[in-house]
Amino acid sequence: MSWSIHHVNLESRDVRRTAAFYTRVLGMAEGAWTFPESRGYIPGAPDKLALFPDGRDSHTGLHLIAPDEDFAARNNLKHNPSLGGHFAIEVKDLKAVMKRLDAAGVPYSDAGVFAIPGLWNIYVEDPDGNLVEINQRV
């Protein structure tokens, strides 16, 4: 299966303080988040979400998000990507990955296109409980 790292999403208790570390101390540039029309519940205020694009496209790179206990329930998901952080893998055939997960009996949350324009994503936990986003461009 062909894949690449799309982004790393870190939980941040104080998004603006942490964003300042990445900009002022590490010299990274903060970008602007663009939401799709089909946006789900995603708190997009600067104190809740920050983006540091890596230059490949506008949403690859580092994401910071404030923890939100209700995020999964508000988006009808089994998994909460705002708690504990996650990394995202981009694949060319998300349906094939979902078939493999179904065959293995591994539960996942199909979020559709809801956070990043043109990106369909699912969430799954690995055997150690690490949350993984798997996405595909649509």
Instruction: Estimate what percentage of residues fall within beta strands.
Output: 25-35%
Multimeric state of these chains? Answer: single chain
Radius of gyration: 15 Å
Order of strands in the sheet with the most strands?
A: 2-3-1-4-7-6-5
How many domains, in number, for the residues?
Answer: 1
Q: Which term fits the overall shape?
A: globular
Report the helical percentage.
Answer: 10-25%
Number of helices: 3
> Do you know the CATH architecture?
Roll
Characterize the largest beta sheet: strand count, sense, and whether it forms a barrel: 7 strands, mixed
Pfam families: Glyoxalase
Organism: Pikeienuella piscinae
InterPro entries: Glyas_Bleomycin-R_OHBP_Dase (IPR029068), Glyas_Fos-R_dOase_dom (IPR004360), GlyoxalaseI/FosfomycinResist (IPR050383), VOC_core (IPR037523)
Protein name: VOC domain-containing protein
Q: How is the topology of this model organized?
A:
Layout: E1 3-11, H1 15-25, E2 49-53, E3 61-65, H2 71-74, E4 86-91, H3 94-104, E5 108-112, E6 119-125, E7 131-137
Parallel strand pairs: 1-3, 4-7
Antiparallel strand pairs: 1-4, 2-3, 5-6, 6-7
